[in-house]
Amino acid sequence: xxxxxxxxxxxxxxxxxxxxxxxxxxxxxxxxxxxxxxxxxxxxxxxxxxxxxxxxxxxxxxxxxxxxxxxxxxxxxxxxxxxxxxxxxxxxxxxxxxxxxxxxxxxxxxxxxxxxxxxxxxxxxxxxxxxxxxxxxxxxxxxxxxxxxxxxxxxxxxxxxxxxxxxxxxxxxxxxxxxxxxxxxxxxxxxxxxxxxxxxxxxxxxxxxxxxxxxxxxxxxxxxxxxxxxxxxxxxxxxxxxxxxxxxxxxxxxxxxxxxxxxxxxxxxxxxxxxxxxxxxxxxxxxxxxxxxxxxxxxxxxxxxxxxxxxxxxxxxxxxxxxxxxxxxxxxxxxxxxxxxxxxxxxxxxxxxxxxxxxxxxxxxxxxxxxxxxxxxxxxxxxxxxxxxxxxxxxxxxxxxxxxxxxxxxxxxxxxxxxxxxxxxxxxxxxxxxxxxxxxxxxxxxxxxxxxxxxxxxxxxxxxxxxxxxxxxxxxxxxxxxxxxxxxxxxxxxxxxxxxxxxxxxxxxxxxxxxxxxxxxxxxxxxxxxxxxxxxxxxxxxxxxxxxxxxxxxxxxxxxxxxxxxxxxxxxxxxxxxxxxxxxxxxxxxxxxxxxxxxxxxxxxxxxxxxxxxxxxxxxxxxxxxxxxxxxxxxxxxxxxxxxxxxxxxxxxxxxxxxxxxxxxxxxxxxxxxxxxxxxxxxxxxxxxxxxxxxxxxxxxxxxxxxxxxxxxxxxxxxxxxxxxxxxxxxxxxxxxxxxxxxxxx
Length: 746
Fold this sequence. Notes:
single chain, 3 helices, Pectate Lyase C-like, 3% helix, disordered N terminus
């Protein structure tokens, strides 16, 4: 999939305004400095070094892009100005080996101990100004699977360890992402699942944005907070779906300068402890906005919370100027909690004070409890309630003391229950307005993304469920996924339907040709037996004039393996270098008066990778790059029968291990070369000057356009690395890679 600045997709200009002092607009994917393809990463073959090395070498303002497949890594660090970009069909798995996360020599990560801090996070962004984590792909913390100390599966998962913590013992589990001391860090579109501990924890950060982030983890996965802004300022969390086993969002004020100017707006919360502040507030919390939030709990989850401010005398401070507005709740046991006695038996002099708290347009459509307390007569909680409705609420559902209420101008359903020790009510209700509208459809645990397709004739749709199955149920069924949507997705250009397709995770939907001009595309889901119908997405596309003209660099059409010229063989993979291509560009080859479409599987502004059609005739041809209807000038190239280029990767057989100093090939074993452009030509191989028997030379079979050459390693070679491999392909010399040779097999 392609995730760069798409020339046909204009910036999405929705602006988030709230307690964040900035005007925040939708981010975009930066250009990639390098791409990394999956190569069979596992607990015994981690991808840590190559991902980290790529990020360390990347220029600020660019991204390391993980393409299709699975990557397994130990802890990573995001450098300043660099983005980790994960494609839609790529997953970055966190290692399950606690030894990879040990923060010191005591090796307490993955154990219960009297203190936490035994683990470093999976991803750390410290002083990573301008960096980010983005993409339509997935980061999976694997908290549900058995830990693998030393590479051997244990009887406990990270979540089992968290469940076992009690008394003075706490679990030492790694956080998924820790962001500290960073300015302008951005999380965009990424999906996070199954963190061993907090998903995203922040320290003293400024100007942070989380836009379109999805967090999907079971409600009974203990201490798996969604996004915790910590004691940061100018923070926006928006257009995101968060469902987890603890606070969905928790604002804290543990350290100076405290937390302030934070907007949590236009989000869907599933399971979890809701929109929270605390429990550490000693450095102060101020100017916080929770607005347009849906909180969809689970009737089986007796621990669900809606809106909560929590602290106690061991960690309390001033919490002021907090607004909760336009919020819908369903199946949430504790709808409202303002609690200055969060920890039973807490001691200290840091008295929590909750001042100028506003709740407006709040509607819980199922019964839930309300707890609003001040600390004492000298430190009462002050708040304003207007249009606050808790359906089916009874007097016994309310706990309140030492609170000064101002009600109105709109109704409060439990106004007559507001009585108790230290409770004062100023009733300014003057309307009979209906409760804030919360139709059942807004709670449906499904959402979608709409983005550009491989070319102008398609769009891509990501339809996903926003909750996970309970961990207890997973232990019986083996799946964390809800039943997938089965309805129909329709694409609209304004009010006109231009395409449709069946739901199914990531799908490509053909659309009708678009006329020149600017088009705003949207999507809708029909609904099914499990999920309500809904509308989603906004993709602005410009077709025809007004786009930069693509330009192919001189000598810019090369073999994709060797990056050498000499022509492109039919059926081989090739690269085009130039400018103004765009990730949605198409490639056409003209030969013998016939036009052929090359299959493009990667595109950016400056590079395209494609497969030359196998039926293009040999000889001379012309090629053009088309970006949203705007063609490049024709470039001339030759189409020979064969022009082999070799990739760097070499494997040993049996076992398919990558040939290196730890895995040298031995005499009599088979060595596998990867390339493209062989074209059926005969191949001879020499290794270290000795002839090798070629066992097979031809198409790889699984990956379109790739070729494999299998040869048997001759005897008598001196063990070591840097042994030269040379080839003759159709009588033409081709420089091969160097390999590592070990001792002779018995």
